[in-house]
């Protein structure tokens, strides 16, 4: 049996392949799961000017926060400058690949300028460490990237 191929058949086959491609894209877009960085993403975006002010306050300090990892004792030490004495705040460990691993820890600096955090329960990989603290009614914010 001989199959005849003409322009109409070619156009029809091209149209069918095109429609299959478009439908597969639509299905993949519908089933794709998109997580925002935070559930309150839009509200935080509106208040971002406050974050910019906090970053500028931290940059005005004599020295930035230094992160020192001690792999033997499984600790991450945060070394603050003299201006941060008597400050209190939070350290937020943000895991870009899995929001279920995120961790928030409060801290208070009394006389010492170093705060240590145990890292044995943190998974290996990339972490964004966000440090926000207040002293004398003034807010500060620093962000560091750390790989365990």
Description:
The chain has 148 residues and is α+β, with helices and mostly antiparallel strands. The chain has a single domain (41-147), classed as Sandwich (Immunoglobulin-like). 29% of the residues lie in helices and 32% in strands. The strands form two sheets. The chain has a four-stranded antiparallel beta sheet with strand order 4-3-6-7. Strands 1-2-5 form a three-stranded antiparallel beta sheet, with no helix packed on it. The radius of gyration is 26 Å and the shape is elongated. The mean pLDDT is 87.
The CATH topology comes to Immunoglobulin-like
Q: N-to-C SSE series? A: HHHEEEEEEE
- Percent strand: 25-35%
CATH architecture: Sandwich
Distance between the termini: 67 Å
Helix-residue proportion: 25-40%
Structural class: alpha+beta
What is the count of structural domains?
1
SS field, number of helical segments: 3
Secondary structure: number of strands? 7
Strand order of the largest sheet: 4-3-6-7
> Unreliable stretches, pLDDT < 50, 5 or more residues?
none
Major sheet description:
4 strands, antiparallel
Q: What's this entry about, in short?
A:
The protein is of the alpha+beta class and 148 residues long.
Q: Which descriptors would you attach to this protein?
A:
148 residues; alpha+beta; Immunoglobulin-like; four-stranded antiparallel sheet; three-stranded antiparallel sheet; 3 helices; elongated
Please specify the SSE layout and strand pairing.
Elements (H helix, E strand, L loop, with lengths): L6 H25 L9 H6 L1 H12 L6 E5 L4 E5 L8 E7 L8 E6 L5 E5 L7 E10 L2 E10 L1
Antiparallel strand pairs: 1-2, 2-5, 3-4, 3-6, 6-7
